[in-house]
């Protein structure tokens, strides 16, 4: 995980929604091009900084969405907290902030076999919050010095529990970076690495997994076999009992895929991105896809007519079109 230059991170709120303002250039500012248009009067009257993250034991560098629950907002910071590593960075936090700007660090990651460096936001199921961390846990990955990450639960009062420590290797995933998905009380997610070995990725090509709220985990699919996708960075969406997602790499041309996987684990590549030789197609999808009217929509970081990325649609049967 890349070390980030120290910076102050700001939680802000507008008239319609809570937003995380950018930290260290990782996220666009609230007024970035592409944001929802506002009149000057509205922008001047409705915008205010709710909370500025600061010195330990506070968190810093929030990278994920916040979730609203019972009149407050809950989220994660990738770094900061009460525990510091040799580089001076903390291992991350879960925080709560009220609409009036009162912030509380609910949990500091990094003690014992706890997780570290949460990259994704939280989801709520039955009054409990659930999330993942990129590193930490009780199992070392193939490198022998980095632990493989966890799935955790945390109450709104701050009682945190490690539900599963990823083990990497051929049997389990490692390094989750995407938000979990709740389908009928069971959680589904992706891990960026782990699972089946495939060159040139020594740590495995990633997985789709399921886990109960009690912590019983099972790998549904390991990427990387033949023209399969590899390295899923984004989370999953569900439509009519089937999960859909993207992989950053892999596929027939090595530049990513859109895939489906049933709740039982039957996976299918719906589309292999092919910026070359098909110049108008995209390449390297990094973000999650959305479902609208039975059609999937998403973006690619590269490819397209000008080589600068695309917005695409794809049917659940696999008919893809660059928009």
Secondary structure blueprint with pairings:
Elements: E1 10-13, E2 18-20, H1 40-46, E3 48-52, E4 59-60, E5 67-69, E6 72-77, E7 79-80, E8 93-98, E9 103-108, E10 115-116, E11 123-125, E12 128-133, E13 135-136, E14 150-154, E15 160-165, E16 173-174, E17 181-183, E18 186-191, E19 193-194, E20 207-212, E21 217-222, E22 229-230, E23 237-239, E24 242-247, E25 249-250, E26 257-262, E27 267-272, E28 282-283, E29 290-292, E30 295-300, E31 302-303, E32 310-315, E33 320-322
Antiparallel strand pairs: 1-2, 1-3, 4-7, 5-6, 6-8, 8-9, 10-13, 11-12, 12-14, 14-15, 16-19, 17-18, 18-20, 20-21, 22-25, 23-24, 24-26, 26-27, 28-31, 29-30, 30-32, 32-33
Q: Mind explaining what this structure looks like?
A:
The structure is a single chain. This protein is mostly beta strands and 323 residues long. It has one helix and 33 strands. A four-stranded antiparallel β-sheet has the order 5-6-8-9, with no helix packed on it. A four-stranded antiparallel β-sheet has the order 11-12-14-15, with no helix packed on it. Strand 5 and strand 6 form a beta hairpin.
Short characterization:
This protein is mainly beta and 323 residues long. The chain has one helix at residues 40-46; strands at residues 10-13, 18-20, 48-52, 59-60, 67-69, 72-77, 79-80, 93-98, 103-108, 115-116, 123-125, 128-133, 135-136, 150-154, 160-165, 173-174, 181-183, 186-191, 193-194, 207-212, 217-222, 229-230, 237-239, 242-247, 249-250, 257-262, 267-272, 282-283, 290-292, 295-300, 302-303, 310-315, 320-322. The longest helix is centred in the N-terminal third of the chain and has 7 residues, at 40-46.
